[in-house]
Amino acid sequence: MVQDSNLFFSLGKQVKDEYGCLIGTVASFDVKANGNVDHVYVEETDGKFVKHPAENFKLEGSDVILLSKIKMRSDSFCNQIPLIWRKDQALKDLAEKKKVSPEIYQDLHSSFDSALKELKNEAQNLIEEIDKEIARCSQEIKDSSYALVHLEIEHEIGKIDDGTYEKAFTVIQECMKRANTEKSDLETIRNKLSNILLGETTPTTQPPKEPAKTSVTPITNLPEPPVVVYVKEIGQSGI
After folding, report:
1. Rounded to 5 degrees, what angle do the CA atoms 172, 173, 177 make?
2. Number of neighbouring beta carbons within 10 Å of residue 123
3. I need a surface site. Which of 5, 9, 20, 162 has the fewest CB within 10 A?
4. CA of 56: how far to CAs of 19, 27, 39, 185, 188, in Å?
5. What is the pLDDT of residues 81-96, one digit of tens each?
6. What share of the chain is helix, strand, coil (3-state, %, to 5)?
7. What is d(CA 109, CA 92) in angstroms, rounded to the nearest whole number?
8. Half-sphere exposure of residue 236, counting CA atoms within 13 Å on the CB side?
9. Closest by Cα among 52, 222, 72, 71 to 137
10. What's the chain's average pLDDT?
11. Is there a contact between 187 and 213 (Cβ–Cβ < 8 Å)?
12. Domains of the chain listed by start with CATH number
C-alpha cells in the first residue's frame, strides 16, 4: 500500500494502468478519522468520477499506477486457498493424534471446508473473467494487425505521407505491444489459479509456485506484423 503522505502528493496527477494506458486524474481522497487514506477519487478520461481503494495504487517515480484488480484478487486466492488447506490438514493430524475431540474436529473441518469451497467458486468465477479479458486482448492484437496492414497499403499507394505514416505506425505498434504484454500476464495469472484449483501446486509456507513457462502461450505464436521490414523501409526512405 502506498504511504498516505505520498498519496497526498499525487493530487492532480495522471493515473495510468500497469501497461501505460491513461485512466484519469487524481481528484481527491476519502480520509478516515485517524488520517489514513481509505479511497482515492479519480476523474476518468470519460468524465466519470470513480473512487478506488487506496491499496490499489502504487507510485513509480512521478507516475501514479492503478494496479490490476484481477492480479490483486488472484494473489489473494493463491495465498488464502493453500493457507486454509494447510490448516485443515493440520487439524486432521491433530485429530489423528487424539489432540482434538471429534466434535471440535468436525466443527472446524466443516468451517475450513466451507471456506475453501467458497474461495474456489470465487476463483473459478475470476478465471472466467480472465478468459474474457484474454479474448479481448487477442481481438485487440488482431485489430492492430489489420490496422497496420491497411496503414501500409495506404502509405504504399501514396495516400499517406511519410511523416503521418511514421506517427501512426508508432501508435499501432505501442497498442499491439501493450495488448501482447497484458495477454501474457493474464495467461500466467490464469495458469496459476488453475494450478491452485486443481491441486497441482503443493501448499507450503512459500508463495505459490509459478507455473511452467511452457504452460503459457508464448507471444511468438501470435501473428507477427512485418515490423522489421517496415522499419528497414523507413530507414531507407530517410525518415
Report:
1. 120
2. 20
3. 5
4. 15, 16, 9, 17, 20
5. 999 999 999 999 999 9
6. 60, 15, 25
7. 8
8. 6
9. 222
10. 84
11. no
12. 4-67 (2.30.30.240), 70-236 (no CATH)
